[in-house]
Please model this.
Amino acid sequence: MSDSLTITNATYLDVPAGEYRRGDIRVVDGVIQQIDGGIDGGIDGGAAPSDHPRFDASGKYVLPGLIDCHVHVTAVTADLAALTEWSPSYVAYGAAKLMGEMLDRGFTTVRDVAGADFGIHDAQAEGLLRAPKVFFGGKALTQTGGHGDSRSRGQHSYDPHQCCAGLGRIADGVDAVRQAARDELRKGAHHIKIMAGGGVASPTDRVDSTQYSVSEIEAVVEEATAANRYVTAHAYTGRAINRALRAGVRGIEHGNLLDDESIELFLEHDAFLTMNLVTYWALQDEGRKYGLSQSNWEKVAAVLDGGMDSLHKAHGAGVNLAFGTDLLGGMQRHQAKEFAIRAKVMPAIDVIRGATVTAARLLQREHQLGVIAPGAAGDFVITDADPLADINVLADSRLSAVIQDGTVVKRY
Ligand SMILES: [Zn+2]
Model:
């Protein structure tokens, strides 16, 4: 007999429509098979055998499982330079803990944009790891001295061995970036992440720098496209964002300092912007405590102010906005707070769309993730209160249960 679960008397969110509907939701072998309408005509009153597992959602709100499109599950410390020297097995245990906590917050799927590999993906898929489903890009490609180069100025050697727990790999020149992209794709990467501009948590670059030549970016895009995958780029400033989008990059990570031309390019290319404002809030508050150096801490202020303004502008223009957090180390516990920060400049339903339907489109899993409809994964977040009326229901993780692939994985 196949595994099944019926969520009865559900008030569930039709995310694309932005409306609640009523019905009984039947999940078979992890996939929504059928939704029968109404309290009276539902599966509950119909033919479902009484011994089938049920979840009574009377009086509760049922949402699709949440998707965080910018995490680093192996960033068990904010000191990313130290991470490269840690035991990979130790880091994997740390990642397992962080990922279990993400699942408890309702994130049934995450996109890891540097660090996670096929081992973490397979462990989750095979049931060895209680965690969100993982879409990964392997190690991010960085130029020498770029955002993914964790060496200090006085440090020369760099061990690029794939088993090291760092988040980046250095590749310079068209041939080398092509080979690095092919290597990550060989290992199963769902996307390729490149560092196309300066960052906050890196020792030798500046936020206002651009990184990689246009020809290098185009070479990576060509390789990813050939494999039916896509490239997403770390970039803060309009200058860095715009050249990446023109070179064919499909996603921009951060984007805090975008300009008007960036918005036109996002729309023209149907590209995705994944901001992560909570990380600047958290870095300011407690980054030093979790290992962020003083000089990196000072970069945070420069990108914090622009973020809210850019999000507001991008939302108004209709840019594809995916939900992301980018938290490092112990700060990852603030993940859900991103919902409340975004809701200051956009409606709650659009914040939720960023963590469901829009995220699924970015992951190339439209209709399979991020919606409650027949054929989609049986991933749900169940709350006692209405998150459209009060987004803090999600921001404070005031959840009733989390269901992943038709299995109740957390009950509060
Ligand atoms: Zn990141």
